[in-house]
Amino acid sequence: MGQAPDYVLDRPSTDDRDQFFTIDSDPRVWTHLPSGRLTDGEDAVAILVRLASQWELDGIGPWMVRRVPGGEILGYCGCSLRGVTGPGASRSTPGAFWNLGYRFRPETQGQGLATAVSRDAIEAAAAVDPDLPVVAYLLEANTASAVVARKLGFELVHRAPDAGNPDPTAMRLVFADRDLTAAQLDATLA
């Protein structure tokens, strides 16, 4: 990975619980989707276990981002396999894609970390399976994330109501690094 000297990437661990919870429970991080905010530390543990298992199952997943090894978590970022459900599902499933996601502490936002680490994540996804598209889906009101997606060279491929969002006016934007199949697009909207 082409890590810049100003950040370190670690796989998630349940040892990250408190810092992860601090990030994911901060209302400033969830201004675009308040219902996504964590309110229970045990939920943070469950998410960290799931994130760690992605590395074992898929060979890739989100990283914890730090300035120095073992230091404070600034946020997390990475690609996760999506569009594969049910027994026997794999990267060859017609709807499979890499989902690029990130979340950072408010005081670290705007410093280019999301863009820089996202580039590492895209490179890692290509090393695991370059045939799968990388997708970033987000809420239209989250203009900062849309800026990052465009900086990464992603194109807006779809705009639709955000299914299941408590805000009936919320719109989902789907950005991708290439054209998506109908099955992949459907999976991004589920």
Strand order of the largest sheet: 1-2-3-4-5-7-6
Q: What characteristic shape results from the CA principal axes?
A: globular
Low-confidence stretches: 1-5
The percent range for helix content is 25-40%
> What fraction strand?
15-25%
Q: Calculate Rg over CA atoms.
A: 16 Å
In terms of structural class, how would the helical and strand content be classed?
alpha+beta
Terminus-to-terminus distance: 31 Å
Mean pLDDT: 92
| H-E string | EHHEEEHEHEEH
Largest sheet: 7 strands, mixed
Beta strands, count? 7
**Count the helices. How many?**
5
Brief synopsis:
This protein has helices at 17-24, 41-58, 113-128, 143-151, 182-189, and strands at residues 8-10, 63-66, 73-82, 97-104, 134-139, 155-161, 171-176. The chain has 190 residues and is α+β, with helices and mostly antiparallel strands.
Spell out the key features of this protein:
about 190 residues; 7 strands; 5 helices; disordered N terminus; alpha+beta
Task: Please provide a written account of the structure.
With 190 residues, the chain is α+β, with helices and mostly antiparallel strands. The chain is built from 5 helices and 7 strands, in the order βααβββαβαββα. Strands 1-2-3-4-5-7-6 form a 7-stranded mixed sheet, sandwiched between helices. The protein is globular and about 40 Å long. It starts with 7 loop residues before the first strand and ends with a helix. Residues 1-5 have low confidence and may be disordered.
Describe the protein's topology.
Blueprint: E1 8-10, H1 17-24, H2 41-58, E2 63-66, E3 73-82, E4 97-104, H3 113-128, E5 134-139, H4 143-151, E6 155-161, E7 171-176, H5 182-189
Parallel strand pairs: 4-5
Antiparallel strand pairs: 1-2, 2-3, 3-4, 5-7, 6-7
